[in-house]
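Ticket #4471: complex job returned nothing on first submit. Input attached below:
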Amino acid sequence: MFKLLMKTVVAAFTTAVILSPVTGEARTLDEILSSKKLIVGVNPTLPPLGNFNEKNEIVGFDVDLSQKLADMLGVELEVVKVGSPDRIPFVATGKIDYVMGAMTRNPTRAKIIDFTVPAHTEVFGVLTTEGKPYASYKDLDAAGVKLVQVRGTTPLKFIKENVSKAEVLLLDNYPDAVRALAQGRGDAMIDVIDFVGEHMNKHKDTKWHVVKAPVNVYFCALGVAKGNSSLKDWLNVALFELHRDGFIDETWKKWFGIDMLYSVSPSPYF
Amino acid sequence: MNYTLQFGQVTEFLPYLAGGAWLSLQIAFLAFCGGMVIGAFGAMAKTFGGRVVRGITAAYITFFMNTPQLVQIFFIYFALPDAGILLSSYEAVLIGMTLNAGAYLTEIQRAGFQSVHRNEMEAAETLGMSLLQRVRYVIMPHIAKVLFPPLSNQYILMTLGTSMAAIFGVEELTGRAFNINAETFRSIEVFSITAVFYIALTLVASMSLGLAGRYLFRAKMRLI
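Support reply: We reran it on our side without changes. The output follows.
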């Protein structure tokens, strides 16, 4: 997800920045407080982080966290729909105060926007069932191993490069792929495991096992405009508190159906 | 439209697509053969069977002709494992397509059976021929010519129907086209080449079937 997103974002951003005139400046914390409104960008195509409900409102983990932050500030929350290509320009031009939606912190993005401390993680790892002998993704690189994957997703490139000996069964969507794994059509799946939690929970009889050693862990944060330290500093403090009092973990569990696989250990030093 | 066609990225996948086309052909051929066998017995059952046998055959045909083939294969692939029957993608698709083809081919062959004149059947019966003998020596020679064109059509339809296998992870022509599309994002190029492959598959099939029809039965069949 993120690799593809990252590429699109970088490409789109470069064009967007060159082409679009700067229409506004990022709002400081003071301006947010006096306008009584926190404007947040959420990507509604990444459930359960953000998704449209039956009333066509955006809901999800990102919205709940933002609502909490708005409550803490004592202001209204306004959710703005953003997509992968336009979300960074939205922050950079001040149309939104910060952006969420699996915003993995990375140096390329950090050249253009600033990041808060991590809000959550994503584990790119191996999902398998209990009793399978895999201790790391490297064990999957063997003849006789069958991976179940979703067609057209970014892990396929990783598999081609690193787990090339395994056979791959490609299905068209995550529910089907997870079900195929539950039914024993394959041995494992390599993907961002957090996002398949809701599908895993549907197969109650299956004893799922997430291989302890992840392939990678991504730290996702809130993206604010470059240099908007008044907002960023406040968000850091607020996120630290929300990590510490368990709000983030509970909200995660509520939306993802499983605990955050690699929990953020909040550090007071930032 | 501001789009520059670039086939270069896709042409390197031609052998890969050709392998997929070969697999599509295999699935269509095997399912058709299996369907023909089911169809022959189905047609016999519907024509000569008692009430119970006819009822069962009718139920089978009604079910398979009135539900989408995709749903039938979904059932075999995703529902049967809950009953302890785990079939691989290829097996599930092949069985699904065979059962589906069986229903259609039963109907086609039954129509042929009924086109044989009653007097001939009664004459054969008077000669003491068994049911199988009657089918083999009286009915088959009659209906082969009549049924050849609709059977050919059914075969072509089935060749195109194999594209459904992609959904179940069988890497046939369409499945491979999806994969290349996901990798190159050259949708127009990928799917136009895939379309050409399908046209080639069906044209070759219909031409050779047409030629065979002309030669074997002097049937007036169009070649294309």
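Chain B has a mean pLDDT of 90. Closing as resolved unless it happens again.
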